[in-house]
Amino acid sequence: MTESRIDFRRAKFLISAPDIAHLDQYLPGDVGVEIAFAGRSNAGKSSALNALTEQRSLARTSKTPGRTQLINVFELDAQRRLVDLPGYGFAQVPLALKNKWQQALGEYLQKRACLSGVVVLMDIRHPLKDLDMQMIEWAVASEIPVLALLTKSDKLAQSAKMKTVNEVRLALSKFGDWVQVEPFSSLKGTGKPKVLAILNEWCHPQWLADELAAVNNAE
Questions:
Q1: Which residues of the chain are under the pLDDT cut of 50?
Q2: What whole-number distance in Å separates Cα of residue 217 and Cα of residue 149?
Q3: Please, which residues have CB within 8 angstroms of residue 148's CB and are 6 or more apart in sequence?
Q4: What whole-number distance in Å separates Cα of residue 141 and Cα of residue 156?
Q5: Which of 46, 108, 123, 201 could connect to 59 by a Cys-Cys bridge, CB 3.0–4.6 Å?
Q6: Which of 132, 115, 8, 124 is nearest to 59 (CA)?
């Protein structure tokens, strides 16, 4: 089956929810394909989503890290969605609220069966913090592919950028093909074609191809 190219520019906001129980109220069950975006509160998740979809305000950006407080879902088509998860760490909010976000984040990652890939965004100047590593290790243990996206790559000179990319790739090489590492700049567009190619591949898991083939054969 030939993969169709997903047009990420067609992404549209679908729902915000505090937890997966509320997601299930508005979505047609835990079906289809979801690609989650996760990262520290200052990693530039919203800017990356806007750059990848070529929509300046799809995901809300703020100069105050930690604005993403809910699970935000964006629809690509009837079967595929992008999910912006609450940022972890750093946010200047009361501890009780921060714990509530973390609980929602953990519950989504542990229980969402349609999760087909996780983009872990890290500021290229401060990669592989403890929470980043925990996220990557959890995903790999759950056999979910990871894209370690090193954001704000325009902040470094080319030599420093590639040095950091190579260091991160070496540190994550123990995970084999489960983890890919790419530099990215929302401002300059660096790495965008490569990232979109990876996301497109994740949008076409084999089980979905088999499911669609079965439906076509039944018709």
A1: 1-2, 64-66
A2: 39
A3: 120, 122, 127, 132, 136, 168, 172, 179, 180, 181, 182
A4: 32
A5: 46
A6: 8
Model pTM score: 0.88
* Residue showing tokens 């069950």: 29
The DSSP bridge pattern shows strands 33-39 and 80-84 to be parallel
Residue type, 108: Y
Please answer whether residues 76 and 11 qualify as being in contact, where contact means their C-beta atoms are separated by less than 8 angstroms: yes
Q: CA 49, CA 9: separation in Å to the nearest integer? A: 10
Picking from 117, 219, 121, the residue whose alpha carbon sits closest to that of residue 178 is 117
Q: How far apart are CA 112 and CA 195, in angstroms?
A: 23
| Cα torsion through 56, 97, 89, 138, rounded to 10 | -100
Token readout for 107 is 């519950």
pLDDT in tens, 159-174: 999 999 999 999 999 9
